[in-house]
Known about the structure:
This protein is of the alpha+beta class. The protein folds into 4 domains: 3-116, PAS domain (Beta-Lactamase); 148-251, 2-Layer Sandwich (Beta-Lactamase); 267-343; 346-478, 2-Layer Sandwich (Heat Shock Protein 90). Helix content is 48%, strand content 24%. The longest helix is centred in the middle third of the chain and has 60 residues, at 253-312. It is rod-shaped.
Amino acid sequence: MEPTRNLTLFLRQSNSIYHVTTEMSGRYTYANELYKKFFFQDTKSFHDQFFQTCLLAGDALLYKSTIDRCIASPGLTISVDLRRFCTDESIFWMRWELCAFSEEGKNDLIEALGTDITERKRAETEKKEVQQRLVRERYLLRTLIDHLPDAIYVKDTESRHIINNKASLLMIGANTEEETIGKTVLDYFNSESASRQMATDKKLLKSGKRIDISEEFIINKKGEKRWLLTTKVPLKKDDDQVIGLVGISRDITESKKMKADLAADLISRQRQVTEATIMGQEKERAEIGRELHDNINQILTTTKMYLDMALTEKDIREELIKKSHENISSAIEEIRILSKSLVPPSLGDIGLKEAVQEMVNNLKFSQKIEILLHTSGLGKHSLSKNAQLMAFRIVQEQMNNVLKYSKATKVDIRISLTMELLILIIADNGIGFDPKKRMKGIGLMNITSRAELHDGAVEIISSPGNGCTLKISIPTKS
């Protein structure tokens, strides 16, 4: 058999190569059995069909342009990948080798040899989809880590940087991630900080075990000192071989600074409370000394003088003894009043309301001022002796402030007790003051320190010419 006849027979009987010829319009003139089997239900009527009929719309245009190229270059084989529908509506990818030729007495024809590349195209599509998914996932992951507040970085087994998120760049003092690739902390930290970092990297890469550092500080080449909480985790292959590490560092510099500021503020407040306590004690001692010297001492001195005179002056002895008796009684009363102001009232016996009421009555008797006392809840809810004494002393301290500085003619004292809170409100109609300028006064500092000792809150509402309202809120349960 001639080679051409052998080739024709091979193509006609082939189970892998699709062989067709068509007119330039695409109308079939010949198709081997393999082609008919897959693309025609009626193999006898394929002459009435066109090659492009079963192509997808976009591929039909591609087919037309390829035919035009074949016609322009007769005898030149041109390859094209086309998708077409099978009889079961499935889609085949076919690679066609197209060539235009002429037969004597006939119009020009197109010969086409095709192979099924569906699986290869499907594999390429899946690979492309996987690559696109990986790109999307990588982008999303990168976007995520770049927006995290913690510094995240990846290093190789030589502690050289591979990946740094934005927080990591800020931490080490670098401008771009590209400039950090292949560099170590020696390029970004001072020698001491870099040595510590390299030591922990080396330990992790050798042991392959996670390292947690509760606190460490670094100084980068910009001279910035940062405090960090760091975790380093080994990167391993499937065979457990360590190929690098991932580091996560949280910048706690501001937190540490805040804690330091709070500690300093606490020490300052404690110092102020101590100073206020000492000054209060000194003030109290001075007042006691002045009271003893200017009042009680004068009464007793006069009494002694009367008694001395009574020893020699018989005519007025009885009158002198009588005056001495009156003076001693007056001194006893003064001492009693002074003692009452110093010794805590017996609140366990008479209660907070009664103790404050007695104070109010004594002040009304000795001072030209109207004092109103309103209480609620004191009989319904219990209050510890310490809390009662604290409340009494606050009222006492504020009343001293009112009498000395306010020039008030009226004071309203309100004491209310609930299951959760003890509330003290002392309001006067005096000259008022600017709380910002007077908050360091000994009396107000004593009140504040007493309230804070019981986790209480102090609020002072006042302004020049508008009196003063002191409000204390103290929780009754811890």
